[in-house]
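Worked example 3. Consider a protein that binds 2-aminohexanedioic acid.
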Amino acid sequence: MQVKANLIGGQWVTGQQAQENFNPSDISDVIGVFAQASAEDVTSAVAAAKDAQADWAALDAQSRHDILDRTGNTILARKEELGALLAREEGKILSEAIGETIRAGNVFKFFAGECLRNTGDLVSSVRPGIDIEVTREPVGIVGIITPWNFPIAIPAWKIAPALAYGNTVVCKPADLTPACAHAIAEILMECGLPGGVFNLVMGRGSIVGEAILDHPDVTAISFTGSVNTGQHVAEKCLQSMKKVQLEMGGKNPTVVLDDADLEVAVSSCLNSAFFSTGQRCTASSRFIVQEGIHDEFVRRMTEEMSALKIGPALDSNSQMGPVVDERQLVSNLKYVALAKEEGATVIGGERFDGPTTGFYQKPALFTDTHNKMRINQEEIFGPCASVIKVKDFEEAIAVANETEFGLSAGICTQSLKYAAAFKKRAQAGLVMVNLPTAGIDYHVPFGGRKGSSYGPREQGSYAKEFYTIVKTSYVSTG
Ligand code: UN1
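Given these inputs, the predicted complex is written out as structure tokens:
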């Protein structure tokens, strides 16, 4: 099998090491062999990004727009093929993978438009004879470190704004899912991006990630991944004064009040907890259910989750794919065991043999739980959710907020009063009313509070807070 190369300074570089990438639905299926960058490769990539940055930032807005727009169009035109690659590599079902690919294409097209909207302000001075201009400039060389769970959309929503606002990029995709980021790199080159503006360095966090964090010429880091790694990234960035943006975990609540439309509540919770095999930082893992609707909710959830067809990501009958790898599956199973130890009633959650050799697990619902249990405080990142019974709205909001995370929070109710109160009082970056906690639009800000996120928001035009730096210029007109 031909080794898929890293992209450094416009050249495809294979280097010394390479690693096979497996399909989690069927481990006998090798997706490809991907080059593993060394620390020296990262040094070359940063040098290339540094060389390319001034010319890229100075390129006219129309040309930058056209490159990003073509990239978006190409991703959209190839959505079936890229979606299939994503499903094969990450394990989410094909329809979700195609949806994610469409999102990635649209993100590039949105940020193509942002190239034309990089405006500033002309301000009156408090002194006579002076004009003040407030303008935005690229932050410089951006290190982008992405997770495995959205292998095309997350790279897209970091790379596209970085490029749109005139930065150059060194990107390290998750070592479990390099294929989609590699496809983006190929498409960017085909669409006319000058060499060195985007560099791809695949491999381990401990080598490639560290080399990016350690490089003094990298001026900003955008990271999505685990809380522990995020804290490490932040510490490193602080030491070298790099700008930093982190998206990390969630323990997202969905409150279900007695007056909820049960159909809406069950379908929102099913989607939030189990779609994409629960492997979304926006997944809901705590259903906070009022006592009047509790038993009926649990009965319907159990029915619906037991009916979910779990199988290979590319099988059109599958409604939920496998877990991403053995390590994640073992970790999920430990939490299922912990739920029992902590006194929860456990429905589902077993590992099982699918039609192919993959990492298959049934969705798990933990009932009779309370919010202090570890299963309700720690992010599991698998198809596991708890039910916490509460007596009223006040208790529900208190439990919803009693977590170190704050990414997304949902409520299912038909009451405008409670929906409005929840929107105000939820300590989260995203609030969803009668909708799943996961599944976001591509043109509006995305991010959380507390332990979930750090730094400026991602996506939409808010992304410029991270990817640009403000300059205030005073000009004497006298
Ligand atoms: C979504 O819910 O549509 O890693 C996106 C994650 C998030 C993205 C969620 N950063 O799961």
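Take a moment to read the result before moving on. The mean pLDDT is 97. The chain is about 40% helix and 25% strand.
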